[in-house]
Amino acid sequence: MEPVMRQVRQRVFHRLHRALILPKRNHSGCAEKAAAPPSTHSRRIKPTLLVSRLYQPSNLHDFGQDSRLPGEMTCKSQRLMQQAGLIHPSNPGCYYYLPATVRSMEKLVRVIDQEMHGIGGQKLDMPSLCSADLWKTSERWDLMGKELFRLKDRHGADYCLGPTHEEAVTTLVAHQANLSYKQLPLLLYQITRKFRDEPKPKFGLLRGREFYMKDMYSFDVSEEAAYETYESVCSAYTQLFTRLGLRCVQVQADTGNIGGKLSHEFQLPADIGEDRLLVCGGCSFSANVETLASDRTDCPQCKTGTLVESKGIEVGHTFYLGKKYSHIFNATFSNAQNKQSVAEMGCFGLGVTRILAAAIEVMSTEEGIRWPGLIAPYQVCVLPPKKGSKVDEAAVLAEELVHTLGENLPGLRGEVVLDDRTQMTIGKRLKDAGSLGYPYVIVVGQGALEETPRFEVIFQQTGETMFLSKDGLLDLLGRVETV
Questions:
Q1: Which residues pair with 123 in a beta bridge?
Q2: What is the rounded CA–CA span in Å between residue 284 and residue 384?
Q3: Nearest CA-CA partner of 234 in 113, 372, 350
Q4: 3-state SS string for 286-343
Q5: Residues 373-384: pLDDT tens digits?
Q6: How many CB atoms lie within 10 A of CB 204?
Q7: Helices first, then strands: H and E counts in the chain
Q8: What is the pLDDT of residues 249-279, one digit of tens each?
Q9: Which is it for the CA torsion 122, 125, 130, 131, positive or negative?
């Protein structure tokens, strides 16, 4: 049997050897590169971002009743994001985030990082898989009930997928035996996936079972210092939403199963919001209806104003925890007298993916997405003329414009896309650009061929149309803020 197999192997070897085009050897014994024959199928890969190459499919299946739980409610942001191919449902309350959405989310994360670093925050990353022992120690294992995703490992040990990380971060700090008061306040934060077993996921990214959240935890030397930290984080949140161009209301809130002595929510007013808010027309007071009697109409702060009810989407939540967790897990520091003292804590959350969806919900039209300009996936879309049209020759000018913008405006490098689908009409591509929400759309047409070239520029946020020279266009886009 062995001689037969040897003959078979030899025949296979010789066939392969003859089939291979072996590289020639030069005088040094090194293999020379064989010249590749020209191919009619080869194409030059341009550095330009082309719409035809971007993975943002608008024809993904399962949009409709089949992709939702029975009776699940949808909203404008969910419909627009799915129709535009920005998200795609995988299972109830969980989504694929497609490339354009990831770009937007990464920009939002950069803005959040800037604001958190501005108040002394330090970024870390904690395990999503959390030991049940920690949660049982804090007595939240039973308190959280069915909202926790629970599982056992092969050894029978209980775990949960973290919806929040008070126990984990406090244990981490407690392991630092030599923490000094000079190192406080300590502000540790992360931006990670969170998990919550929602009984009825709905509204797309507004209420899911798997989502991204920024959670920060503060450790202070005293109650007074903890309040100062609390105020600085709330101010940073206000600054964040101002930068995004979102009107956000800070309202008094219930501490819920997080616990603590003080709590505020950051709410985006919206008709589909699940939170009921009471806002005073005479002063700055506002509160979640959970904290007041639902039938109350007089303001507890100014005493004269009238409380008006509205709805909101919660996008942030802050808590002053006191020593609730630090006492349980023995998170201490050496004070000025070199004695051990229990740290005062706070925790501060931002719903990253919820901010994306909520912004689209409150800013968009029924037909098209409108992003906060700072976090739009791409800032500019350039539309060359339809192939074969009377101004077809302007297509070259469109490509040149894309390169000019990138070369002259460093902030727009990687932010300008060319809609090269020139087999489609300008009108159809304009509609697509509107549905995807590019802040600026530039139509390169007849005006670009004039002695003094002019470009049609559409500012999507307002629908305003301008006709600008190249210098005017560079001046306009040079003022666009990017991160």
A1: 189
A2: 50
A3: 350
A4: EEEHHHCCCCCCECCCCCCCEEEEEEEEEEEEEEEEECHHHHHHCCEEECCCCCEEEC
A5: 999 999 999 999
A6: 30
A7: 12, 22
A8: 999 998 777 767 789 999 999 999 999 999 9
A9: negative
